[in-house]
Fold these 2 entries.
Entry 1:
Amino acid sequence: MKQTHIRRTEITIETRSLTIIRSRNVKSGCVRCQNCQTLTAAFTPAHAVLIFRVDAAEIKRLFQINQIHFADDSALCGKSLADYFKQEIRYVED
Ligand SMILES: [Zn+2]
């Protein structure tokens, strides 16, 4: 495990997993999904586009066919995205 001294929320993209490093004193990034009740990272559609390397239209399409869903009013459920894109999300406290 690589040591890090980063003091902000950072997302590292690997081939098969997303590692989300959260600063202990920054309460952000995780929500209880309204749909699947999972405590998960949440991504705005704009972030999802960058993280999962698809375009905005694809995110919208996946939402419309219920492959992914929103965790709250503004953010997509990280678990639904990870399941669809076959990524594992690992959470690391810095
Ligand atoms: Zn969900």
Entry 2:
Amino acid sequence: MSSQVFHENVVVITGASSGIGRELALQLADQGAWLALAARRAEDLQDVAQACIEKGAKAIAVATDVVEETQCRALIDRVLQEYGRIDTLINNAGISMWTSFEDAEDLEGMKRIMEVNYYGSVYCTRYALPELKKTKGRLVGIASLTGVTGVPTRTFYAASKHAMMGFFDSLRIELMDTGVSVTMICPGFVSTEITRLDAGGGMADNDLVKENKTMPVATCCRIIIDRAARRKREEIMTWRGKLGRWLKLVAPGAIDKIARKVIEEGG
Ligand SMILES: NC(=O)c1ccc[n+]([C@@H]2O[C@H](COP(=O)([O-])OP(=O)(O)OC[C@H]3O[C@@H](n4cnc5c(N)ncnc54)[C@H](OP(=O)(O)O)[C@@H]3O)[C@@H](O)[C@H]2O)c1
């Protein structure tokens, strides 16, 4: 189904210079989407756009820092100038952290997690929404399992993803009669740069995530595209995440122990 849905569909993807955003762009290019790719690293973004064009899709790279509201507005303006409409916005840009609250010395740096993950999504959505209403389009948010339950060493990250979930769950209700769908995606560990970088952009100094316990990025993106195509409201990606959601209602202490074990074991 998704291969027809995204053919000539104008899709804006934030955080498209690497990881999930990059792979989403490449898979959507295979379907003939008309792509607008946003992130800060202009050269990497241009490389992704070029790879999409070589697959026969249309693609533009728009260097954007989603923390800056004016840049988010400029991104949407540029997309409209190029394609004349927006059918899908995928709020994917994000940064993470790898330290306990007590060890997080740089609180300003931690605030940035909220600015990128939450406010970046809010700004892009704000300016894209009038256009999405015209096309009865799709809003997609890449949250996380940490948006559903708390996880140690991710305090600020989990807060930003809970904020995303609360925002988009509320917006979905506001948009009920407009034809615009809101799909929230909650991946577990996926093999990307985010599992190797800390919130300041430096490399994490130890082997925090076991590679064999991560989902391949291609698999993750196939699921995202399918759920967005079907306008599903939410996707919790791992069996542990699905179980955890129910367990949290009946035995919240048990899910806390599972979350601690997952982080201690790196996946
Ligand atoms: N990988 C996982 O295990 C996992 C699990 C659950 C959820 N997620 C979520 O998936 C999303 C993508 O992450 P990923 O795993 O693909 O990590 P990634 O490879 O590090 O990609 C993150 C993307 O976000 C962009 N970005 C960061 N700060 C930005 C800013 N201020 N403005 C614009 N773009 C910015 C980066 O581009 P620039 O540096 O070029 O700006 C990059 O393209 C994130 O929201 C993350 O929270 C990931």
